[in-house]
Amino acid sequence: MKLRIYALAYLLFLYAPIILLPLFAFNDATIIAFPLAGFTTEWFSELTQNKALHEAVKNSLFIALMTAIFSTLLGICAARAGAMANFPGKRGIIGFVMLPLVLPEIIVAVSLLVILRQVLGVNLSNWTIIAAHVLICTPFCIAILNGAFQNLDPSMEEAALDLGESRWSAFRLVTLPLVMPGIISSMLIAFTISLDEFIIAFFLTGTNPTMPVYIWGLLRFPASLPVVMALGTLLVALSIILLTLAEILRRRGIKRAGGTDKGGFL
Amino acid sequence: MSALITLTGVEKYYGDYHALRDINLTIDEGEFFSLLGPSGCGKTTLLRTIAGFEGVSGGTVMISGKDMADVPPNLRPTNMVFQSYAIFPHLSVAENVAFGLRKRQMSKADKAEAVKEALAMVGLDGYGARAAHALSGGQRQRVALARALILKPKVLLLDEPLSALDKKMREHMQVELIRLQRAVGITFILVTHDQEEALVMSDRIAVMFEGEIGQLADPETLYRRPNSRRVAEFIGKMNFINGTASATDDGAKLLVPGLGKCTVPAEQCPQGVRTGDVAIGIRPETLAILFEGDTAPRHAADAVVDEVVYYGDMTYYDVRVDDVAAPLTIAMKNLIGRPVLEVGDKARIAWDDRALVVF
Q1: Which residues lie below 8 Å from residue B32, measured CB to CB, with a gap of 6+?
Q2: Which one of A150, A260, B235, B271 has the lowest number of neighbouring Cβ atoms within 10 Å?
Q3: In chain B, what are the domain boundaries?
Q4: Where are the beta strands (DSSP E) in B43-132?
């Protein structure tokens, strides 16, 4: 009985802030406070009319998509090397590649800003944010893809080679289909991370803000708070859907390759 | 028969580790050849060298008179059955079997016909549409065999193909493989650590230790005339007795403590005839315990039963003989009317000088 209370308190602590989002998104009042005033979808319809917001969302979607593609490509290279090849210092190198996972984002953001502006003299644009997001997403992609590649029997690719395929076609015909669920799952995770990343985007954003940066700008006007709540509600829903999809695909991939689940992120 | 594969002075290093040492080997067309040895002896490395998955550090690998040094595995006339079978789980059985035909210029109908034939050959008629990941171990192996044999390679390489199967299935597949090899007439090279499997299936066996070939012979020679103690110990079971030898013109006079004296021809001394201390090897089934009515043996000695292990068809006795340090193991068939002795019983044992091997 006691344990149940602890568990409930624990869940409340984790999810109360997120539950408040939709609550106030549908609340018919500009002030974020209890008691609730009534039901409205006004804030959501306001969302659909905000041109600047639409631009920001478009930027963010483009950045997230590119980040997903590039970091997954890098992840495939690293995971395949980690799982199939043997080279001196492999463990150390893999560990080093995973390091950005624990680097404070603010440090990454500041140092990237200095390097891009002062050292390289690059103009800030969506592409600078993409580059930075690839940096922080790649370790996540490697972690997911490692699972997919390590569950793969190394004899599979050799068997395809033995049956007359070239190295590339053996990879394409056998390895790729078997790790495809892992690849999709990796892209979804990278997409989600990039979509709501704020600190780096805030530092590196050019003239067009990304969606999180735009939301941060909105917070200066109390009247627009409920709109932010509505947008937040949509984002949470999207994140949950994408992450669930990613996990389902990861599990299916392991099953397909005939391995046992060794645990992923979720 | 003509030589199909010729290995000359093959060496393989992994860093400092010397995996293959000066391997010289000729394998004939249509031969069932086995590489036998304990784990880590280099037998799988040698197989992978023939397949092309491992390069050599020295020496040459020739197949059909052609140097394979620059030929990648996909262009060699070899196909492999992997230890894990490596059946592609995302494809159906038929797609797995047809995989190697992708690069061949054949009509769809011809390919389908070839797949059907290959599946029939391994006893999997009608399994084509099944999903590969739903197969049992024995079925996977048959698919792997069909997938390799459909390409009609000159050599089929089998890497411990039976080790993942249970005992009944393994014995069944041994017979199947022999039948299959005779039917297709392709050279089979089998890697195994199971001496019985190698003896049952092979025309010739190369026994490997620590990257070297210890002995290369047909199964009977390997069993009856092992050329060293380690081969004798690896293949089957053998008793060793310390004795003394004195060389004669065409053999050796032996003094076997506890058993007696005899002479053996030079062919029973694989390491050469010499005078001095020797180890005398004798297989358990060439020793016998004498029961009433048995014909008079060439040689006999008194012993005491030390241990009895009953196997149903056979009984293994460990007996002590005066002046022999370790107990001798004797394998006796449990014939009708023949009693099974008990520990402590006195026994008269028979031995035959023709069964001795002198090391």
Answers
A1: B178, B181, B187, B188, B190, B201, B202, B203
A2: A260
A3: 3-230, 238-358
A4: 58-63, 66-67, 78-81
Query: B262 phi and psi, to 5 degrees?
Result: -165, 170
- Closest partner residue to B80 (CB to CB) among A156, A162, A174 is A162
Tell me yes or no: is domain B3-230 CATH 3.55.40.20: no
CB contact under 8 A, B147 and A161: no
Per domain, the residue ranges of chain A are 40-256
The length of chain B, given as a count of residues: 359
Question: Alpha-carbon distance A253 to A179, whole Å?
Answer: 6
Distance CA(A177)–CA(A169), nearest Å, equals 12
Give the pLDDT confidence of B44-66 residue by residue, as tens digits.
999 999 999 999 999 999 999 99
AA letter at B344? G
| CB contact (8 A) between residue A257 and residue B89 | yes
Show residues of chain B in contact with A164, CB under 8 Å. 74-75, 100, 102-103, 151
**CATH for A40-256?**
1.10.3720.10
Predicted model pTM: 0.80
Q: Round to whole Å and give the CA distance between B218 and B223.
A: 9
Enter the CATH code of domain B238-358.
2.40.50.140
Work out how many CB contacts closer than 8 A connect A with B.
Answer: 61
Joined together, the tokens standing for residue A236 give 């949470």
- Alpha-carbon radius of gyration of chain B: 25
Contact, B14 vs B5, CB < 8 A? Answer: no
ipTM for this prediction: 0.81
Q: Whole-angstrom Cα distance, residue A149 to residue A95?
A: 17
Mean pLDDT by 10 residues, chain A (266 residues): 84 85 79 75 81 87 94 92 77 81 86 86 83 90 87 88 91 89 89 88 84 85 80 85 81 65 52
DSSP conformation class of A122: P
